[in-house]
Design brief:
alpha/beta; seven-stranded mixed sheet; four-stranded antiparallel sheet; 12 helices
């Protein structure tokens, strides 16, 4: 038998890949599962966005290989998006790069900047892909604690006491997933100062800026941030285009060029029609966000009610696509609790431990569930 690469042994299958397979199996058995686990928007993109991709299919160049950098008008749209929403000026030719989803950007950035043995600061709790990609490229994850008592923000005094000599990169994610902590420009200033002091490349993963958040911010708003910072963003959550796979990375031209060197060896460009749809999405007025958030506000209110039914507490001021809820103290295992709910009440919720050891004692509800389904979940208790 041909053996797999050693790197495969150090990563596990993505939690939602395996767990959703289990959930689908229960559904195939006739179980009335309500899936509140995954943040995949259930609403459609704008009608104008759908029409744009439909019309693009008949364009003369629609089915050819596309530029690795994307259409110039898409890059211009991404640049305008940052200027209009964050007051950040980006050269659309050199400082922003379209991606097939920001998740692939995590891999591209890691391949572009990390060598074997480099260390990477990763939030705990945080997005699991930061850890798995770090391991896959031969670097070493170094976890930094985020705790509720510190508003889910880094403890810089504690970080300064560590040996940072091998740290090359730091992942941050505000608004934060899974906790919904908003972050702030003051926090970004501290992160940028920390990165400059220790010669660390910091990447803010920023796909939740406009979901239930009245004050969207970017790390690139901080003076001098481009010297040490990149930012990932995505159309998935903002414009209900998760399956379209459209993201972006923005920052200093030298950094973007390095990422492009990796990316150009891994794909042959984004489908023309999807780019045209993305261009249309980026033209939408801010009323789009407001209309989406009216729906999410109603869902969040109901999800708070469900969380109360389970004896949980939560932060009403959190933002983003999820409700992060603290379990009653007597419950020792989030995973056991979630499995009990799944098999006894046919409701799938994500255990906080998926996101790291500091997620123990917490669960995460997705708001990508219609109101009637959340009401049904409430009634099951």
């Amino acid at each position: 038998m041909i053996t797999t690469a050693k790197r495969i042994a150090i990563v596990e299958e993505y939690y939602f890949s395996s767990k959703l397979r289990e959930v689908r199996n229960l559904i195939s058995q006739g179980k009335p599962i309500i899936n509140m686990g995954i943040g995949s928007p259930d609403m459609a993109p704008s009608k104008s966005v759908i029409e744009a991709i439909q019309n693009a299919v008949t364009d003369e160049n629609a089915h050819q290989y596309q530029s690795y950098q994307g259409l110039p008008e898409l890059r211009k749209g991404l640049s305008d998006f940052y200027n209009n929403n964050f007051q950040v000026a980006l050269d659309f030719n050199t400082e922003t790069l379209p991606l097939m989803g920001s998740k692939e950007g995590i891999m591209h950035i890691s391949l572009a900047f990390l060598n074997e043995g480099d260390e990477v600061l990763i939030p705990n709790p945080g997005y699991p892909t930061y850890t798995s990609v770090t391991k896959l490229v031969g670097a070493t994850p170094v976890f930094y604690d985020l705790i509720e008592d510190n508003n889910w923000e880094p403890d810089f005094e504690k970080l300064e006491q560590q040996d940072l000599s091998k740290v090359k990169m730091m992942w941050v994610n505000y608004p934060h997933m899974p906790t919904g902590a908003t972050g702030s420009l003051n926090l970004f200033k501290r992160i940028v100062a920390f990165a400059k002091k220790h010669h660390i490349l910091v990447i803010n993963d920023n796909p939740y800026s406009f979901v239930l958040n009245e004050n969207p911010i970017s790390i690139l708003q901080v003076d001098g941030a481009k010297e040490v910072a990149l930012e990932l963003n995505s159309l998935s959550k903002t414009y209900n285009m998760a399956g379209w796979r459209v993201g972006m990375v923005s920052g200093k031209s030298d950094y973007i060029e390095a990422i492009l060197r990796v990316k150009s060896n891994m794909d042959s460009g984004m489908f023309y029609g999807i780019q045209k749809g993305a261009i249309e999405a980026l033209k939408l007025e801010k009323t789009w966000f407001k209309e989406q958030n009216v729906i999410y506000q109603k869902r969040r209110k109901l999800t708070f009610e469900l969380a109360k039914k389970l004896g949980c507490t939560y932060d009403e001021n959190s933002v983003g696509l999820f409700v992060w809820a603290k379990l009653p103290q007597e419950i020792l295992s989030a995973e056991d609790f979630v499995d009990k709910i799944l098999y006894k009440k046919d409701i799938f919720i994500t255990p906080g431990t998926v996101f790291g050891s500091n997620g123990e004692g917490y669960i995460r509800f997705s708001l990508c569930v219609k109101e009637e389904k959340i009401k049904e979940a409430i009634l099951r208790f």
